[in-house]
Amino acid sequence: MALRAGVAGGVLSTIAVAGSANAATAAEPVTETIEMPTLTAALTSKVALSAEATQQAADAYQYRAEQQSAAEKAVKDAKKAHKAAEKKAEAAAEKKAEERAAAERAARSAERTDLSGVQTAAATSSSSGSSASAPSQDVPAPASGSVASVVSFLQAQVGDAYVMGGTGPNSWDCSGLVQAAFKQVGVDLPRTSQEQSTAGTQVGTSNLQVGDILYWGGQGSAYHTGVYIGDGKYLDAANPSKGVVIQDLSGYPADGAVRVL
């Protein structure tokens, strides 16, 4: 009995110890759950940082988008301003051209009035100067009053167009107009400026008479011709932008002159 009681007591003691150990072992997981709040706080912090970074990226993207939109608007505004400036400049140019055309028409009308007096003086000059300067042998003698006829023909062409190689009746180049004017009085001039600069008698540009043929460039190598009409003016088929006009000789002095009348 005593032995059994001792054995039984030992067994119970062993069971008690084991139970205590198991109880202690079973309680250990409770200790591990204490660290969970720390892990949760760290994760929350990381999530918060990630959200802040995302917001910063979104703000930066929105800022760049606003900058791009502002730049595009500035470009559009600049294009509109440029177009408006171009239209304004075109309108100003058109107005200036109209004013210039009106002034030229008025000047042309005044010049035609002046030419009527020049023609009378030209006829007198032609009769008094015919003995002082005889034309070359290859130029026919002109009829009476031929200088006035030449000037009258030239006056009638004022306002016609300039066309390279033009010989009339509504468009001319410089030598074509000179040739046609003198043909009216029976003087057959060469066709080109170079040849016209050697026709007739060479005269100095300081002693010009109405009807003298002016040339620019060298004798025999002239590149332009016109006709002196008195009062320091000449008439020529100037260029495509001017056409047939009367101009002041002081603005474009000739290099030489020949007299065929």
Helices and strands in order:
Layout: H1 2-32, H2 36-129, H3 146-156, E1 161-162, E2 171-172, H4 174-183, H5 193-196, E3 201-203, E4 213-218, E5 221-230, E6 233-237, E7 244-248, E8 256-259
Parallel strand pairs: 1-2
Antiparallel strand pairs: 3-8, 4-5, 4-8, 5-6, 6-7
Give the structure's gist in a few sentences.
The chain is of the alpha+beta class and 261 residues long. It has helices spanning 2-32, 36-129, 146-156, 174-183, 193-196; strands spanning 161-162, 171-172, 201-203, 213-218, 221-230, 233-237, 244-248, 256-259.
* Number of helices, where a helix is a run of at least 4 consecutive DSSP H or I residues: 5
Strand content: 5-15%
Average pLDDT, all residues:
76
Q: Work out the number of β strands.
A: 8
**What portion of residues is helical?**
55-70%
Summing up helix and strand content along with how strands pair, one would put the structural category as alpha+beta
Shape: rod-shaped
Q: Could you spell the SSE succession in H and E letters?
A: HHHEEHHEEEEEE
CATH homologous group name of the domain at 93-259: endopeptidase domain like (from Nostoc punctiforme)
Span of the ends, CA to CA? 178 Å
- Major sheet size, sense and barrel closure: 6 strands, antiparallel
CATH architecture of the domain at 93-259: Alpha-Beta Complex
Q: Segments where pLDDT lies below 50 for 5+ residues?
A: 14-18, 21-27, 111-144
The gyration radius over C-alpha positions equals 54 Å
CATH class of the domain at 93-259: Alpha Beta
Q: Taking strands numbered 1, 2, ... along the chain, how are they ordered across the largest sheet? A: 3-8-4-5-6-7
Annotated CATH topology of the domain at 93-259 = endopeptidase fold (from Nostoc punctiforme)
